[in-house]
From TrEMBL:
Chain ranges of the Aspartate/glutamate/uridylate kinase domain: 6-212
Family: Belongs to the UMP kinase family.
Keywords: Allosteric enzyme, ATP-binding, Cytoplasm, Kinase, Nucleotide-binding, Pyrimidine biosynthesis, Transferase
Binding site for ATP: 11-14, 54, 58, 165, 168
Taxonomic source organism: Acidaminobacter hydrogenoformans DSM 2784
The name this protein goes by in its record: Uridylate kinase
EC numbers on record: 2.7.4.22
Known pathway: Pyrimidine metabolism; CTP biosynthesis via de novo pathway; UDP from UMP (UMPK route): step 1/1
Enzymatic reactions: UMP + ATP = UDP + ADP
Transmembrane segments: none
Amino acid sequence: MKPLYKRVILKLSGEALAGDKGFGLDEQTVVDVASQVKELVGMGVEVGVVVGGGNFWRGRSGGGMDRSTADHMGMLATVINSLAMQDAIEGLGLPTRVMSAIEMRQIAEPYIRRRAVRHLEKGRVVIFAAGTGNPYFSTDTTAALRAAEIEAEVILLAKKVDGVYDSDPMVNKSAVKIDALSYIDVLNRGLGVMDSTALTLCMDNNIPILVFGLKETHNIIKVCCGENLGTIIKE
Ligand code: UDP
């Protein structure tokens, strides 16, 4: 297998990192992702990782809380996941840097685009923590933004569900998986794969999104080598 891309953003949803536990981190899943990242880097791919936080907290779970405060909590959740990913990847002997959009210098470097690119060029995995650093955004938007900034060729969107369906497969048992979609289709049909801010950022910058399930081992490698396991979203 040969990778199609030189530089990618791998977006891991918090939910996917929780595995079957549904909350927190599933160690086996984290280690499995780490070993696939190591394999990808070994194949010559530069990998930037954006992790979600939904396995701990989402801004919209805040109920009556102030939204910005609830979102700050969500961004901190992504830092927990980022450190877990760093630990697992470094445990396999691959150097990493966690770069945080919110300064916390005791545990992560501040995000500086040029430095991130330099790390990637040196074969280090860069884990982008704390989302965009702004409330009212998502880690999908972070993935789109960082992909545009570092000129990644594609976003590998790893989820709990294995692609985009015409209706919610968790609710509707006869939901049908869609192989390919345009950005506009996703927006017009209101398919809940990504929020519209993230999607339009990908559309405006022509960044393809490969949606797939994290559950089966080796999926990250397969998708990066051109297998369409889930759904491809592009122009
Ligand atoms: N978040 C934010 N700004 C960002 C990225 C994330 O406020 O730029 C907060 C937001 O509250 C979000 C939470 O962090 O709900 C966790 O991120 P997300 O829901 O995207 O995680 P995922 O669904 O991928 O696990």
